Task: structure prediction
Amino acid sequence: MDLMPISPTPLYRLRHLEELWDHDRIYIKRDDMTGLGQGGNKIRSLEYLLADALNKKTDLVIVGGGLQSNLCSLTAAACAKLNIPCELIINCSEPSGSQGNILLERLCGASLRFIGPVSFQERNRKMNEIAAKYRDNGIKPYVIENGASTGLGALGYASAAIEIAEQIHSLRTGRLTLFCPGGNGGIAAGLIYGNLMIGCPFDIVVVSVEDDTQTLKSHIEQIIQDEERITGLKTPCAVSESFVLTDEYRGGGWGIDSKESLAMVEEFASSEGLFVEKVYTSKVLVGMKDWIWHKSISGPVCFLHTGGIGSLFAQY
Ligand SMILES: *Cc1c(COP(=O)(O)O)cnc(C)c1O
Result:
Protein backbone atom coordinates (compact mmCIF):
# COMPACT_ATOMS: atom_id res chain seq x y z
CA MET A 1 0.00 0.00 0.00
CA ASP A 2 1.23 3.45 -0.78
CA LEU A 3 -0.69 5.77 1.50
CA MET A 4 2.51 7.12 3.07
CA PRO A 5 4.68 8.36 0.22
CA ILE A 6 6.90 10.29 2.65
CA SER A 7 8.30 7.89 5.21
CA PRO A 8 9.62 7.78 7.87
CA THR A 9 7.86 10.71 9.51
CA PRO A 10 10.31 13.17 11.12
CA LEU A 11 11.57 12.76 14.68
CA TYR A 12 13.48 15.73 16.11
CA ARG A 13 14.07 17.92 19.17
CA LEU A 14 11.77 20.63 20.48
CA ARG A 15 14.39 23.03 21.78
CA HIS A 16 12.14 25.82 22.95
CA LEU A 17 10.05 23.38 24.97
CA GLU A 18 13.25 21.91 26.47
CA GLU A 19 14.07 25.39 27.71
CA LEU A 20 10.57 26.14 29.01
CA TRP A 21 10.11 22.79 30.73
CA ASP A 22 13.72 22.59 31.85
CA HIS A 23 14.37 19.12 30.48
CA ASP A 24 17.41 17.93 28.61
CA ARG A 25 15.90 16.26 25.59
CA ILE A 26 12.33 16.52 24.35
CA TYR A 27 11.59 14.99 20.97
CA ILE A 28 8.55 14.90 18.75
CA LYS A 29 7.58 12.13 16.34
CA ARG A 30 5.57 13.83 13.62
CA ASP A 31 2.85 11.32 12.83
CA ASP A 32 0.67 14.30 12.10
CA MET A 33 2.75 14.33 8.89
CA THR A 34 1.79 10.91 7.55
CA GLY A 35 1.41 12.52 4.17
CA LEU A 36 -2.22 12.10 3.14
CA GLY A 37 -5.15 14.40 3.83
CA GLN A 38 -4.44 16.36 6.98
CA GLY A 39 -2.23 13.53 8.29
CA GLY A 40 -2.45 11.54 11.50
CA ASN A 41 -2.15 8.10 13.05
CA LYS A 42 -5.13 6.58 11.23
CA ILE A 43 -3.17 6.53 7.96
CA ARG A 44 -0.92 3.83 9.43
CA SER A 45 -3.93 1.64 10.26
CA LEU A 46 -5.55 2.35 6.91
CA GLU A 47 -2.41 1.11 5.13
CA TYR A 48 -3.23 -2.36 6.44
CA LEU A 49 -7.02 -2.21 6.41
CA LEU A 50 -7.38 -0.82 2.91
CA ALA A 51 -4.82 -3.29 1.54
CA ASP A 52 -7.13 -5.97 2.95
CA ALA A 53 -10.12 -4.21 1.36
CA LEU A 54 -8.40 -4.15 -2.05
CA ASN A 55 -7.41 -7.83 -1.75
CA LYS A 56 -11.06 -8.61 -1.13
CA LYS A 57 -12.09 -6.68 -4.27
CA THR A 58 -14.19 -4.24 -2.28
CA ASP A 59 -16.61 -1.93 -4.11
CA LEU A 60 -17.22 0.41 -1.20
CA VAL A 61 -15.59 1.27 2.12
CA ILE A 62 -17.90 1.97 5.06
CA VAL A 63 -16.63 3.59 8.24
CA GLY A 64 -18.32 5.11 11.27
CA GLY A 65 -17.42 7.95 13.58
CA GLY A 66 -18.59 10.94 15.54
CA LEU A 67 -19.10 14.44 14.12
CA GLN A 68 -15.41 15.40 13.97
CA SER A 69 -13.95 11.93 13.47
CA ASN A 70 -10.34 11.97 12.26
CA LEU A 71 -10.77 8.39 11.10
CA CYS A 72 -13.69 9.33 8.86
CA SER A 73 -11.89 12.19 7.16
CA LEU A 74 -8.66 10.23 6.67
CA THR A 75 -10.57 7.25 5.29
CA ALA A 76 -12.28 9.64 2.87
CA ALA A 77 -8.86 10.94 1.77
CA ALA A 78 -7.36 7.44 1.41
CA CYS A 79 -10.36 6.21 -0.58
CA ALA A 80 -10.08 9.25 -2.87
CA LYS A 81 -6.45 8.34 -3.57
CA LEU A 82 -7.29 4.67 -4.14
CA ASN A 83 -10.37 5.54 -6.17
CA ILE A 84 -12.78 3.49 -4.03
CA PRO A 85 -16.19 4.92 -3.06
CA CYS A 86 -16.47 5.71 0.63
CA GLU A 87 -19.48 6.06 2.90
CA LEU A 88 -19.27 7.65 6.33
CA ILE A 89 -21.81 6.73 9.01
CA ILE A 90 -21.82 9.61 11.45
CA ASN A 91 -23.71 9.40 14.72
CA CYS A 92 -25.03 12.92 15.10
CA SER A 93 -27.57 15.14 13.40
CA GLU A 94 -26.52 16.85 10.20
CA PRO A 95 -24.75 20.11 11.08
CA SER A 96 -25.69 23.29 9.23
CA GLY A 97 -22.24 24.18 7.88
CA SER A 98 -19.15 22.23 6.83
CA GLN A 99 -16.71 22.69 9.66
CA GLY A 100 -13.36 21.00 10.24
CA ASN A 101 -13.27 17.35 9.21
CA ILE A 102 -16.75 17.53 7.65
CA LEU A 103 -15.42 19.99 5.07
CA LEU A 104 -12.43 17.75 4.29
CA GLU A 105 -14.68 14.69 3.91
CA ARG A 106 -16.95 16.50 1.46
CA LEU A 107 -13.98 17.80 -0.54
CA CYS A 108 -12.70 14.21 -0.86
CA GLY A 109 -16.02 13.17 -2.37
CA ALA A 110 -17.15 10.78 0.40
CA SER A 111 -20.85 10.31 1.00
CA LEU A 112 -21.91 11.31 4.47
CA ARG A 113 -24.83 9.67 6.23
CA PHE A 114 -25.94 11.31 9.49
CA ILE A 115 -27.85 8.86 11.68
CA GLY A 116 -28.69 11.17 14.60
CA PRO A 117 -27.22 11.33 18.10
CA VAL A 118 -27.16 7.60 18.86
CA SER A 119 -24.62 5.56 20.87
CA PHE A 120 -21.61 4.03 19.15
CA GLN A 121 -23.09 0.56 19.70
CA GLU A 122 -26.16 1.68 17.77
CA ARG A 123 -23.90 3.21 15.10
CA ASN A 124 -22.08 -0.13 14.71
CA ARG A 125 -25.37 -1.96 14.44
CA LYS A 126 -26.56 0.49 11.80
CA MET A 127 -23.28 0.22 9.90
CA ASN A 128 -23.57 -3.54 9.66
CA GLU A 129 -27.21 -3.25 8.66
CA ILE A 130 -26.28 -0.87 5.84
CA ALA A 131 -23.44 -3.20 4.75
CA ALA A 132 -25.87 -6.15 4.67
CA LYS A 133 -28.21 -4.20 2.39
CA TYR A 134 -25.38 -3.52 -0.04
CA ARG A 135 -24.47 -7.21 -0.06
CA ASP A 136 -28.08 -8.10 -0.86
CA ASN A 137 -27.74 -5.82 -3.89
CA GLY A 138 -24.54 -7.49 -5.11
CA ILE A 139 -22.18 -4.77 -3.87
CA LYS A 140 -19.14 -5.80 -1.83
CA PRO A 141 -18.66 -3.39 1.09
CA TYR A 142 -15.69 -3.35 3.48
CA VAL A 143 -16.58 -2.23 6.99
CA ILE A 144 -13.91 -0.60 9.15
CA GLU A 145 -14.73 -1.53 12.74
CA ASN A 146 -13.83 -0.16 16.15
CA GLY A 147 -12.25 3.11 15.03
CA ALA A 148 -9.72 1.10 12.97
CA SER A 149 -8.22 -0.12 16.28
CA THR A 150 -8.34 -3.77 15.31
CA GLY A 151 -5.49 -6.29 15.29
CA LEU A 152 -4.90 -5.67 11.60
CA GLY A 153 -5.11 -1.87 11.90
CA ALA A 154 -2.74 -1.90 14.87
CA LEU A 155 -0.01 -3.55 12.79
CA GLY A 156 0.58 -0.07 11.36
CA TYR A 157 1.99 0.94 14.73
CA ALA A 158 3.90 -2.31 15.14
CA SER A 159 5.91 -1.30 12.10
CA ALA A 160 6.05 2.30 13.37
CA ALA A 161 7.80 0.93 16.48
CA ILE A 162 10.60 -0.37 14.26
CA GLU A 163 10.76 2.98 12.47
CA ILE A 164 11.01 4.82 15.79
CA ALA A 165 13.66 2.42 17.13
CA GLU A 166 15.81 3.05 14.04
CA GLN A 167 15.45 6.81 14.38
CA ILE A 168 16.33 6.74 18.09
CA HIS A 169 19.30 4.53 17.37
CA SER A 170 20.75 6.95 14.86
CA LEU A 171 20.27 9.85 17.32
CA ARG A 172 22.44 8.05 19.91
CA THR A 173 20.45 9.74 22.58
CA GLY A 174 20.16 7.06 25.24
CA ARG A 175 17.06 5.25 26.41
CA LEU A 176 13.98 7.22 25.48
CA THR A 177 10.40 7.24 26.79
CA LEU A 178 7.68 7.62 24.17
CA PHE A 179 4.36 9.19 25.22
CA CYS A 180 1.38 8.14 23.12
CA PRO A 181 -2.41 8.56 23.41
CA GLY A 182 -4.80 5.76 24.35
CA GLY A 183 -8.29 6.01 22.87
CA ASN A 184 -9.52 2.65 21.63
CA GLY A 185 -6.00 1.37 22.18
CA GLY A 186 -4.88 0.63 18.62
CA ILE A 187 -1.84 2.91 18.62
CA ALA A 188 -0.74 1.62 22.01
CA ALA A 189 -1.29 -2.04 21.12
CA GLY A 190 0.68 -1.66 17.89
CA LEU A 191 3.58 0.15 19.53
CA ILE A 192 3.76 -2.24 22.47
CA TYR A 193 3.61 -5.31 20.24
CA GLY A 194 6.21 -3.96 17.80
CA ASN A 195 8.50 -2.81 20.60
CA LEU A 196 8.31 -6.21 22.33
CA MET A 197 9.13 -8.04 19.11
CA ILE A 198 12.38 -6.09 18.73
CA GLY A 199 13.49 -6.40 22.36
CA CYS A 200 11.97 -3.21 23.83
CA PRO A 201 14.56 -0.60 22.73
CA PHE A 202 12.40 2.20 24.17
CA ASP A 203 9.88 2.75 26.99
CA ILE A 204 6.22 3.52 26.41
CA VAL A 205 3.81 5.59 28.48
CA VAL A 206 0.20 5.42 27.29
CA VAL A 207 -1.91 8.44 28.28
CA SER A 208 -5.57 7.50 28.34
CA VAL A 209 -7.89 10.14 26.91
CA GLU A 210 -11.04 8.17 27.54
CA ASP A 211 -11.24 5.07 29.75
CA ASP A 212 -9.86 4.12 33.15
CA THR A 213 -6.61 2.17 33.14
CA GLN A 214 -8.23 -1.23 33.68
CA THR A 215 -10.63 -0.86 30.74
CA LEU A 216 -7.99 0.53 28.38
CA LYS A 217 -5.52 -2.17 29.43
CA SER A 218 -7.96 -4.92 28.57
CA HIS A 219 -8.64 -3.33 25.15
CA ILE A 220 -4.91 -3.14 24.46
CA GLU A 221 -4.31 -6.74 25.51
CA GLN A 222 -7.18 -7.92 23.34
CA ILE A 223 -5.80 -6.11 20.29
CA ILE A 224 -2.31 -7.51 20.93
CA GLN A 225 -3.77 -11.03 20.99
CA ASP A 226 -5.38 -10.31 17.63
CA GLU A 227 -2.04 -9.10 16.26
CA GLU A 228 -0.39 -12.32 17.46
CA ARG A 229 -3.09 -14.35 15.78
CA ILE A 230 -2.72 -12.48 12.47
CA THR A 231 1.09 -12.60 12.34
CA GLY A 232 1.46 -16.00 14.01
CA LEU A 233 4.17 -14.45 16.19
CA LYS A 234 3.71 -14.38 19.95
CA THR A 235 5.37 -11.72 22.10
CA PRO A 236 8.53 -13.11 23.72
CA CYS A 237 7.69 -11.88 27.25
CA ALA A 238 4.80 -10.66 29.37
CA VAL A 239 2.92 -7.80 27.73
CA SER A 240 1.72 -6.14 30.91
CA GLU A 241 5.21 -5.33 32.20
CA SER A 242 6.35 -3.67 29.01
CA PHE A 243 4.49 -0.37 29.28
CA VAL A 244 3.00 2.13 31.72
CA LEU A 245 -0.57 3.25 31.43
CA THR A 246 -2.04 6.32 33.10
CA ASP A 247 -5.57 7.72 33.22
CA GLU A 248 -4.58 10.76 35.29
CA TYR A 249 -4.83 13.22 32.43
CA ARG A 250 -8.08 12.29 30.74
CA GLY A 251 -10.06 15.02 32.52
CA GLY A 252 -13.78 14.26 32.21
CA GLY A 253 -13.08 11.63 29.53
CA TRP A 254 -13.28 11.55 25.75
CA GLY A 255 -13.66 15.01 24.24
CA ILE A 256 -14.05 16.73 27.60
CA ASP A 257 -11.39 19.36 28.24
CA SER A 258 -9.42 19.77 31.39
CA LYS A 259 -8.03 23.15 32.39
CA GLU A 260 -4.56 21.85 31.60
CA SER A 261 -5.40 20.40 28.19
CA LEU A 262 -7.03 23.64 27.08
CA ALA A 263 -3.99 25.64 28.17
CA MET A 264 -1.67 23.15 26.43
CA VAL A 265 -3.17 23.82 22.98
CA GLU A 266 -1.97 27.41 23.35
CA GLU A 267 1.28 26.63 25.12
CA PHE A 268 2.39 24.23 22.40
CA ALA A 269 1.43 26.51 19.52
CA SER A 270 3.01 29.58 21.08
CA SER A 271 6.24 27.81 22.01
CA GLU A 272 6.86 25.56 19.01
CA GLY A 273 4.56 26.83 16.27
CA LEU A 274 2.89 23.42 16.11
CA PHE A 275 -0.76 22.61 16.65
CA VAL A 276 -2.40 20.03 18.88
CA GLU A 277 -6.14 19.59 19.33
CA LYS A 278 -8.10 19.14 22.54
CA VAL A 279 -9.31 15.52 22.44
CA TYR A 280 -6.10 13.50 22.12
CA THR A 281 -2.81 15.21 21.56
CA SER A 282 -3.00 18.04 24.10
CA LYS A 283 -3.74 15.52 26.87
CA VAL A 284 -0.66 13.48 25.96
CA LEU A 285 1.45 16.62 26.26
CA VAL A 286 -0.13 17.45 29.62
CA GLY A 287 0.88 13.98 30.80
CA MET A 288 4.41 14.28 29.44
CA LYS A 289 4.90 17.68 31.08
CA ASP A 290 3.66 16.35 34.41
CA TRP A 291 6.06 13.40 34.22
CA ILE A 292 8.89 15.84 33.62
CA TRP A 293 7.90 18.25 36.37
CA HIS A 294 6.44 16.05 39.08
CA LYS A 295 7.47 12.46 38.40
CA SER A 296 11.10 13.39 37.81
CA ILE A 297 11.49 11.30 34.69
CA SER A 298 15.11 11.32 33.66
CA GLY A 299 16.36 10.74 30.17
CA PRO A 300 14.94 11.78 26.82
CA VAL A 301 11.20 11.87 26.20
CA CYS A 302 9.29 11.88 22.91
CA PHE A 303 5.78 13.08 22.16
CA LEU A 304 4.01 11.02 19.50
CA HIS A 305 1.97 13.61 17.60
CA THR A 306 -0.97 11.67 16.18
CA GLY A 307 -2.56 14.54 14.26
CA GLY A 308 -6.19 15.61 14.46
CA ILE A 309 -5.68 19.09 13.05
CA GLY A 310 -8.93 18.85 11.06
CA SER A 311 -10.98 18.75 14.23
CA LEU A 312 -9.19 21.73 15.80
CA PHE A 313 -11.05 24.06 13.44
CA ALA A 314 -14.37 22.87 14.87
CA GLN A 315 -13.32 22.87 18.53
CA TYR A 316 -13.49 26.61 19.19
C1 LIG B 1 -8.01 8.09 16.76
C2 LIG B 1 -6.98 8.97 17.33
C3 LIG B 1 -6.25 8.58 18.47
C4 LIG B 1 -6.56 7.33 19.26
O1 LIG B 1 -6.08 6.18 18.72
P1 LIG B 1 -6.44 4.74 19.34
O2 LIG B 1 -5.73 3.82 18.45
O3 LIG B 1 -7.94 4.61 19.25
O4 LIG B 1 -5.99 4.69 20.75
C5 LIG B 1 -5.27 9.46 18.93
N1 LIG B 1 -5.00 10.63 18.32
C6 LIG B 1 -5.69 11.03 17.23
C7 LIG B 1 -5.38 12.36 16.64
C8 LIG B 1 -6.70 10.21 16.70
O5 LIG B 1 -7.40 10.63 15.63
